[in-house]
Amino acid sequence: MVVPSLKLQDLIEEIRGARTQAQEREVIQKECAHIRASFRDGDPMLRHQQLAKLLYVHMLGYPAHFGQMECLKLIASSRFTDKRVGYLGAMLLLDERHDAHLLITNSIKNDLSQGIQPVQGLALCTLSTMGSAEMCRDLATEVEKLLLQPSPYVRKKAILTAVHMIRKVPELSNVFLPPCAKLLHERHHGILLGTVTLITELCERSPEALRHFRKVVPQLAQILQTLVTTGYSTEHSISGVNDPFLQVQILHLLRILGRNHEESSETMNDLLAQVATNTDTSRNAGNAVLFETVLTIMDIRSTAGLRVLAVNILGRFLHNSDRNIRYVALTSLLRLVQSDHSAVQRHRPTVVECLQETDASLSRRALELSLALVNGSNVRAMMQELQAFLESCPPDLRADCASGILLAAERFAPTKRWHIDTILHVLTTAGTHVRDDAVANLTQLIGGAQELHAYSVRRLYNALAEDISQQPLVQVAAWCIGEYGDLLLEGNFEEIEPLQVEEEEVLALLEKVLQSHMSLPATRGYALTALMKLSTRLRGDNNRIRQVVSIYGSCLDMELQQRAVEYDTLFRKYDHMRAAILEKMPLVERGGPQVDEEAKESKEAAQLSEVAPAPTESQASQLLDLLDLLDGASGNAQHPPLLDPSPGGALVHLLDLPCAPPPPAPIPDLKVFEREGVQLNLSFIRSPENPALLLIIITATNSSESDVTHFICQAAVPKSLQLQLQAPSGNTVPAQGGLPITQLFRILNPNKAPLRLKLRLTYNHFGQSVQEIFEVNNLPVESWQ
User: GAE domain: from which residue to which, for each copy (predicted)?
Assistant: First the structure.
């Protein structure tokens, strides 16, 4: 006999009335035992009530797996009350990890074909929630039939189920292409929204669908124009905007259809201008539509005036009182600063004002955008704003701000003196937060500016006398005093108030640095070397310097001790050579951007001229089997043998030079990818000894203001060719034209088949993860013939 159990409402009251966790567990365990017994021996007509209680227990986080089979029994029942609870239980208790979910496929198929709308709705909701790839393949035709049913209720749910199927099985795209064009003629906004979402999924996953739906761009534009021009509707309007959800989804689809397509972009240009000018911005609904409009304008081939309008909309967003909207505007402007620099520059004062935001995320984005807006014409004004921000910015932003100022000053400095003053200000304000190379860069800058040696040493001496806690500043000051201490003592400084400095004051200051508990071992090394160099620069007695050097000969720090012992030996045994050894360093010439570019080009030319090394056996065993990206998966495909370049065949005897074949003509380079400053170029080399072997050098460069990290390049070729990828030179491409990443591809094409290359790029840029998959079909004919 089954023990009576609680009703669902009574169970909820008793659980909520439990005062402790132990009491709650006791109630649930007792009721679960009743539910098990009821499933086993109870009345089948009341099974749905027991399962409803079990689902509530599951929602509280307690195990309810023993109810899975009961869900299947209820779904197979002919009663609607049983089906309703059964389908709900299937959505909550079943997923792809349980094989039991496949057992309801036939029940769903039968319910979809019954013609009872509530039952069809339950089956479609369950399929769209937990349908696996196998279920989607089996039931795709049933869902397709329901897309054109007369009932809007069923059609809307069928469309959402089709979206789930496309996400699970992209190969089903061809099944749902024909009904979508008919569904666009619907007037029901819910069906239209689902249809646009379905078309978006199809276009993102199928190039064929993308080409197909570019024909409906005028129809989509007409729907959007109707939404924009139609007045207030009580059924669809939100905050005075007519169905903003549908408008945003249509704009998203138009962005996908107009990307890299001139004709589609021209069709929607006027419409986008109308949306941008007629949308109300007083509420968030209008702001959402405007932001999606801006993204669409920037992603398609829009006119210059339209792009300026989009940037101005983002500029208005910066004045919005909502912090989220301001953050979105700053992030979007940061993405556009490379392509529309002049338009973004108009909003520079507003961006600078955002530096004072109390929200850390806003001030960080404003800092990144401010640094990106620095150029040669505004560098002085922008540096004043950024230096003022550096003095008051939060500690977690100081490192980024200091590094950005140093990079911008190095790139756009109008004069060397201004450059030195800027770096000194950064070191004085936030010396502990600068990059590791700041000390080396400043010493190199001062060393190369002979006319500023006296000015620099005086400025650094004054700064060191005021504060010895900023270690990078102390290191640069110690180096500069050691090199140009004689100029400091002369006191001849232009544009600086003359102040006589005594030798004892200089030595005392360096000894203070050596004895300070704040000085790092590296800083003490700088100070000790400066004292040693001053022994040849000062006119007085060197006994004080010798005493200090001899004291540090017994220092616990090994590096400092070794340096002191060597200097002491120089005093005692090689004093006649001390002046020559410690003479001033020669002037260091800093290469400008043009010199750096020439050095970069010569380095690339040297890399191209080198013969690629033969792959070892371990490298050959690590060939990436990405070939089925182009030709489909086939486990029995015959691959050509591994590359086996012969070292002997690569050598040309000197006596055979007159008879050697002429070298092949150079193959032009090819640019295959460019996005937000990230560029990918291909260089080609064909060996005359093995014409079937093609060497491709991939070069990734970055001209943007943000580093590219976690860069990975993968490739695939048809199965008639063989591809070998060698390890890249790194995974980070520094900003502003830093050292590029290079990677070597070796392709064996014995049959001289037309070369196709599919590339997949993944990297992080501007704090976002980027993945691009594209095919290169325009490779030079010389690369494979």
Answer: 665-780
% residues pLDDT > 70 (the chain): 88
Spatial CA neighbour of 405 closest among 415, 389, 395: 389
Residue that the structure tokens 């109630």 belong to: 27
Tokens, residue 602: 């010569």
pLDDT at 493: 57
> How far is residue 586 CA from its own chain's centroid?
43
Contact, 216 vs 255, CB < 8 A? no
Helix (H, G, I), strand (E, B) or coil at 485: helix
- How far is residue 200's CA from residue 513's CA, in Å, rounded to a whole number? 66
Residue type, position 482, single letter: G
Unique residue bearing structure tokens 């043998």: 641
CA distances to 28, 34, 37, 149, 645 from 42, rounded to whole Å, are 19, 10, 7, 40, 77
What CA dihedral angle connects 338, 343, 345 and 346, to 10 degrees?
-170
Q: Is the alpha carbon torsion for 517, 523, 529, 534 positive or negative? A: negative
Q: Are strands 722-725 and 709-716 parallel, antiparallel or unpaired?
A: unpaired
What does the alpha-carbon distance between residue 307 and residue 115 come to, in Å, rounded to a whole number? 51
Mean pLDDT of the chain: 82
CA distances from 782 to 572, 661, 665, 684, 754 (A): 70, 17, 8, 9, 10
Mention every residue, 6+ apart, whose C-beta is less than 8 A from residue 45.
Answer: none
Q: Which residue do the tokens 């939404």 mark?
A: 227
Q: How far is CA 620 from the centre of its chain?
A: 32
CB 375 within 8 A of CB 412: yes
Q: Where are the beta strands (DSSP E) in 223-368?
A: 237-238, 241-242
The model carries a pTM of 0.64
Q: Contact 705/736 with Cβ under 8 angstroms?
A: yes
SS3 136: helix
- The per-type count for the chain, helices as H runs and strands as E runs, is 35, 10
Encoded tokens for 704? 């943007």
716-730 confidence digits (pLDDT tens): 888 888 888 888 888
Strand partners, 680: 673, 700
Three-state DSSP state, 758: strand
Query: Residue 739 class from Cβ within 10 Å (0-12 exposed, 13-18 middle, 19+ buried)?
Result: middle
Residue 286 CB neighbours (<10 A)? 19
Residue 332: other Cβ atoms inside 10 A: 21
> Picking from 308-317, 570-579, 648-657, 706-715, which range would have the lowest pLDDT averaged per residue?
648-657
* Residue 361, token pair as written in the block: 């995320």
Tens-digit pLDDT profile for residues 544-556: 888 888 888 888 8
Write the CB contacts of 225 (distance below 8 Å, at least 6 apart in sequence). Answer: 271, 274
Check if the beta carbon of residue 660 is closer than 8 Å to that of residue 649. Answer: no
Tell me the C-alpha distance between 566 and 110, whole Å: 92
What the block records as the tokens of 169 is 């099985």
Sign of CA dihedral 160, 161, 167, 173: negative
Tokens at residue 396, please? Answer: 């977690």
Cβ contacts of residue 288 below 8 Å, gap of 6+?
244, 248
Q: Which fold has domain 670-783?
A: Immunoglobulin-like (2.60.40)
Q: Are 199 and 180 in contact (CB under 8 A)?
A: yes
- Using CA of residue 446, residue 451, residue 452, residue 453, what is the dihedral sign? positive
**Contact indicator for 715, 757 with CB cutoff of 8 Å:** yes
End-to-end CA distance of the chain: 86
Give the C-alpha distances (Å, rounded to integers) separating 164 from 26, 136, 719: 40, 9, 33
Residue type for position 753 = A
Amino acid at position 312, single letter: N
Answer yes or no: are the C-beta atoms of 748 and 643 closer than 8 Å. yes
- Domain spans in the chain, listed from the N-terminal domain onward: 435-582, 670-783
Contacts of 14 (CB under 8 A, 6+ apart): 6, 27
- Least Cα distance to 157 among 186, 195, 102 occurs for 195
| 220 and 272 Cβ atoms separated by less than 8 Å | no
